[in-house]
Amino acid sequence: MAGTDPDRYRLSDKERDEALERLRTALEEGRLDPEEHGTRAGAALEAVANTDLVPLFEDLPPESWPSALAVPGDAEPGDGRPPTPAGTAGRPPTRPEGGEGSSDRRDRPDAGGLVIWAGIIFVLWGVPSISSGNTDAILAWLVFLVVFMVPGVVVATVQTVRKRSDGDEPAIDQGGR
C-alpha cells in the first residue's frame, strides 16, 4: 500500500503482554500513578499496531519501552543502547524532563545494599567480636566498616543530596560549582 509506514506492523498478543508488563514496572517504580497506569494499560490492550504504543511510552525512559517500539536494525537487545520508537527514526531523541543535570538511578551507588551488607557483617563479625571481648577482632571489624562501608554510604548520601538540591530547590551557589 502506498503511504504506509514501513516500521508499522500489527501487534501480537505476546507484544501486548510485554507492553503491559513494562507499564506495570513503571507503576511499581512510581513513574505512573494507578489511574494513569489503568488508562495506559487499557490503551495497550486495545492497541492494534506497534505505533499505537508510542504515546503510552514516550514520556518513560527508553529502557522501559517494549520491544515492539524498536526500529528494526536499530538497537539489539542487550547491546546497551535504548530502542528508538517506531516512526521516530531520523528525529532527534527527546530529553526526559530532568534535563542535562538529571542523573539516572543506575548512576548512583546503592546505599541500601551497603547498609544491608553492613548489617550482615555486624551480625556475622561484629556481634561475635563484641561478645567475645577480643579487642583485636573488634578493631578489625571497625576498620573494615570505616574503610569499605562508610565511604560508599557517604558518596551515596552526598549524591542524593546534590540531586535533590539541583532538581527540587532553586540553584544555590556552592563555591564555583
Determine the strand fraction and express it as a percent band. under 5%
Note poorly predicted spans. Answer: 89-103, 169-173
Structural class: mainly alpha
- The total count of helices amounts to 5
Summarize model confidence as the mean pLDDT: 74
Number of strands: 0
**Biggest beta sheet attributes:** none
Shape descriptor: elongated
Distance between the termini: 57 Å
Give the radius of gyration.
24 Å
N-to-C SSE string, H for helix and E for strand? HHHHH
Helical content stands at: 40-55%
Summary of the model, kept short:
50% of the residues lie in helices and 0% in strands.
Detailed description of the structure:
- The protein is an all-alpha fold.
- Helix content is 50%, strand content 0%.
- The protein contains five helices and no strands.
- The longest helix is centred in the last third of the chain and has 33 residues, at 135-167.
- The termini are far apart.
- The model is unreliable at 89-103 and 169-173 (pLDDT under 50).
Write the layout of secondary structure elements.
Elements: H1 13-28, H2 34-46, H3 54-57, H4 111-132, H5 135-167
Quickly list its features.
177 residues, mainly alpha, 5 helices
